[in-house]
Amino acid sequence: MRNRDRGRSANIKRRKQHLIEQMPWCLPKIIDSPTEPLDQSGVEAIHNGAMRILEDIGIEFLNSEALEIFKKAGCIVKDQNVRMDETLVMELVGKAPSTWSITPRNSRRKLTVGNKFLLFGNVSSPPNYWDYTLKKKIPGTREHCQNLLKLSQYFNCIHFIGGYPVEPVDVHASVRHLDVLFDTLTLTDKVCHAYSLGKERVEDVMEMVRIAGGFSMGEFESDPKMFTNINSTSPLKHDYPMIDGWIRLAKKNQGLIVTPFTLAGAMAPVTMAGAVTQSIAEALSAVALAQLVRPGASCAVGTFTSNVDMKTGAPAFGTPEYMRATQMTGQLCRFYNLPMRSSGACVATVPDGQAIWETSNSLWAAIQSGTNLIYHAAGWLEGGLIASPEKFIMDCEMLQQIQRYMEPELVGTTEDDIALQAIKEVGADGHFFGAQHTQERYTEAFYQPFLSNWKNFESWEADGGIWTVERSHLLFNEIISDFKPPNLDPSIKAELSDFVKLRKREGGVPTDF
Amino acid sequence: MRNRDRGRSANIKRRKQHLIEQMPWCLPKIIDSPTEPLDQSGVEAIHNGAMRILEDIGIEFLNSEALEIFKKAGCIVKDQNVRMDETLVMELVGKAPSTWSITPRNSRRKLTVGNKFLLFGNVSSPPNYWDYTLKKKIPGTREHCQNLLKLSQYFNCIHFIGGYPVEPVDVHASVRHLDVLFDTLTLTDKVCHAYSLGKERVEDVMEMVRIAGGFSMGEFESDPKMFTNINSTSPLKHDYPMIDGWIRLAKKNQGLIVTPFTLAGAMAPVTMAGAVTQSIAEALSAVALAQLVRPGASCAVGTFTSNVDMKTGAPAFGTPEYMRATQMTGQLCRFYNLPMRSSGACVATVPDGQAIWETSNSLWAAIQSGTNLIYHAAGWLEGGLIASPEKFIMDCEMLQQIQRYMEPELVGTTEDDIALQAIKEVGADGHFFGAQHTQERYTEAFYQPFLSNWKNFESWEADGGIWTVERSHLLFNEIISDFKPPNLDPSIKAELSDFVKLRKREGGVPTDF
Fold this sequence. Notes:
Two copies of one chain form a homodimer.
Chain A: H1 8-18, H2 40-57, E1 59-61, H3 64-72, E2 76-78, E3 81-83, H4 86-93, E4 100-102, E5 111-113, E6 119-122, E7 128-129, E8 138-139, H5 142-154, H6 176-187, E9 193-194, H7 199-213, H8 217-222, E10 227-230, E11 237-238, H9 240-251, E12 255-258, E13 263-264, H10 272-293, E14 299-302, E15 306-307, H11 320-336, E16 340-343, H12 353-369, E17 373-378, E18 380-381, E19 386-387, H13 389-405, H14 415-418, H15 420-426, H16 436-439, H17 442-445, H18 457-462, H19 468-482, H20 490-505
Parallel strand pairs in A: 1-11, 6-17, 7-19, 9-10, 10-12, 12-14, 13-15, 14-16, 16-17
Antiparallel strand pairs in A: 1-3, 2-3, 4-5, 7-8, 18-19
């Protein structure tokens, strides 16, 4: 695969200069029209299907507070089954803002969710870790998690931190959220997330985010400072802790994303339209609840609709079916005027060719669907069971290219862009390297990769013949050893640390989930 | 990277059954609206720029026959510079059909060029070969070339044979076209191509295609049976042999594709709009010539506009700049009502992650631009300097997914698709695996990969832990050893063989190009 020794150190030296050649922090905006596989009647068919589910079949909410809220709003509640009519659902969905913001402790990292912005989050929640030194899958540790947080901070193209980038299984579950949020809030200054897995976790994380930002209670609740993502337990069910967290965050005016787990053929119909219909119904039921708790609550609809391997039941991602389901969901989100979340998902076990075609398909589906938040946009493998730093860095190269792709200047057609004068000057026997028109523009004209090799085979071979995954691994080591955490007032850091100590002394949280 | 011995034979056995699980031959049609980065005024700016180039600056034609033809048509010809006014160009371009066909020796492999069809061609013209056994870059041989032709025939998603899938450098250039065309016409039954590199080559290939199809002269010329692709020598120049072949094929009513070689910052302006403008002018000048030779000649416009690495001058492909240039070219092709060609290009040296993100970007740009013919859609590496069978097979997995993606059934929203009855039946506590709705559909519901691994990490590891590139290599060996050439009447094969012998006795063709 490569000539390990020859040229290795030369290569590292060369890339050292590249270490900082990344794009500046920016919030890219989708400038393309969305890809719309459905015509108006197709959108209506899915909408009507979702409304029939909500009106006639109902969604189970295994949460008594939610059931009370729905009952009070006039829904038909029978045991845990909630049925709500179209008029009410549409009235409530209409109260959700089409665009909202999240402001983390560093206000320059403020995000706008909606309004065609396309924001990238790191991989979230894999229980396992793989890297190119190990070359095996092992349970995640706090150090792995910290390193992935460092990558999340280092890369400007990562806009938000989803869940734990890998589960640190070496930290007891009762206090894991305290340690990881401490790491997240000290190693990064970007928007972060609370798992809706029990009231104590949710409340602890909200309090830590408040402390880290130096926010008063009033400031914290004045607009979203963090967010949660909940998954329905498809088909047609919302579990207790997810909905508990959902209500708690709604009460405190934080960001709310609901992502049904609708794998077609398993937890949802085998037809993509059927799976999307069910997903939309499950999502809207949670949006309706949030609007009952707080009219105007900041909600987004996520999609995780994909197909399974019908031979094994295993989920697949980045497939043609996944892409179309994502695009269809995008059409429905525009119909409801709600921001949308999708994923940078793949099912490949290692960061190889398959991982990239699946991820690339997922990322293009996100763009095509008008997605606003891409979860797992960097670092995910094996359907979310593995986090990998090499995959993370490879994904960031793809994300940067998307950012560049969205720059309106790239498709400018001013007189200067058309460049007739330069074409005339160069004529039929010259070249453009030396042209004034080129000289004035060349440093900024094109996307500059930090990981791709653009050298020819011979030069690449002389550098050690290193494949993408290993180049990524070398870069990972360099980034981690060079990493500098973002500024944080020492008194705030101490306050966070004290909070963690206090809550650990109190025993952390129950772990009977 | 893998556990080489454990599970290898089991894995081969498993995939053996997969060997034939590919999609049937079909001509996919783009059902998505194109991505249009330019508004109407942007399209007009590029069109007007191209017209100014053609009217005021002119294109060099290093071919006296072409100069005579242009002169007769009223163009301003000064030495080798040809200027033509917008009225004439648009009148001539208007004579080119928006859709045309190519019928190879097997009429069931007939292709429609245009009308939203998206057709895939194999890699064409690399001088070098790389495979996973060699793990190095070596000059191509006839055996390499034959093996890549076998892959081109084997995979139903490959619709046409471009140039030689690798240059067989072990065959003397004077007779190379005879041997490779013999191989192409006996190992495949798909549409094929003639290089416009000297009159003898072009005439020999046309004659061999005629013989292989059992066509009379009249039948051969009644509509296209093969095609050529020419490149302009950008900036603003068409060389002698390319235009000679162009005229010869136009006279005989064969397919004509012109692809300017407009790398932004090198042979074209550093701005993408400028590079596209120049490319369009160069392409239209050839289309105009073809229409003067034969009004209604079957033409398509190719794009090869990309950026270079401004540090080294090396070309880059599959970049954000490449994607936008391709989409812009698509808008202009629709403006002129001409079919379009683009490429499945990448610059990576080996079939790794980078190769796939670049290729995936190129393929998505093709879809987004409304491309009709994708050259180099399988097997290309290092900016076209290397052909690789592993990359070929990996690309075919991506191409099949695109075919599946384009199936209208995938986004159906009939009552059966929405599946309310199934959702009701399964309710909140079941799953869809056993549902009648699923059982009736599951075998055909989802794309089935032939190369992707959808097993979990542990099962994949038990199978040998084989990365995509190596799985592809193993499959390559299996396909080659199983390969059966398509039917060909033995008398036709003998006639072809005799023609090759005769032309070799005559000394082949001059090699002073």
